[in-house]
């Protein structure tokens, strides 16, 4: 196993970042209207792409870890912070019409409103950094579970979780497609 470091890692980061943005754009999830229609429950493209990415990426990381090419770096499960952060993220995504990844892809495709909104993301990051001392004392300790992973929390192996998630995704996608076909 050869570690990838230095200039090679930077070049690969740019290549994979470009590929990720291109795939987001080609998948239609860097389109403001696609994201808004997701929140209106009229277009499930974003959900399909993200659920597929979670499953494929999760399996890929799991395999890389099992083969010794990667290591897990588990972050603490601070559930109050995660709940509040995901709520803020969701509100921001509804108002902005993009998540950070799709915003950068939209900016790369020439979207001016995505560029303007990106300054809001930067401002939010700065405000979070400035308030982190308070957040770390008042929010992070509440409902903190420590460094835990789903397999140990649920008492089942990661392959079982991936199989269940994959079965759920396939079933859900089939239901969405049938519903979409009936609506036409």
Describe it for me?
- The protein is mainly alpha-helical and 184 residues long.
- The chain has a domain at 31-73 and 150-184.
- The protein contains 8 helices and no strands.
- The chain has helices at residues 6-26, 32-39, 45-66, 79-96, 100-108, 112-138, 150-154, 158-183.
- Helix 3 packs antiparallel against helix 8 (158-183) and helix 5 (100-108) runs antiparallel to helix 6 (112-138).
- The longest helix is centred in the last third of the chain and has 27 residues, at 112-138.
- It is globular, with a radius of gyration of 19 Å.
- 11% of the residues are buried.
- The mean pLDDT is 92.
> Could you describe the largest sheet, including whether it forms a barrel?
none
Shape: globular
Number of strands: 0
Q: In what range is the share of β-strand residues?
A: under 5%
Q: Which bin fits the share of residues in helices?
A: over 70%
**CA(first)-CA(last) distance:** 52 Å
Q: Give me the number of helical elements.
A: 8
The ordered string of helix (H) and strand (E) elements is HHHHHHHH
Structural class based on helices, strands and sheet pairing: mainly alpha
Work out the radius of gyration. 19 Å
Low-confidence runs: none
Mean of residue pLDDT?
A: 92
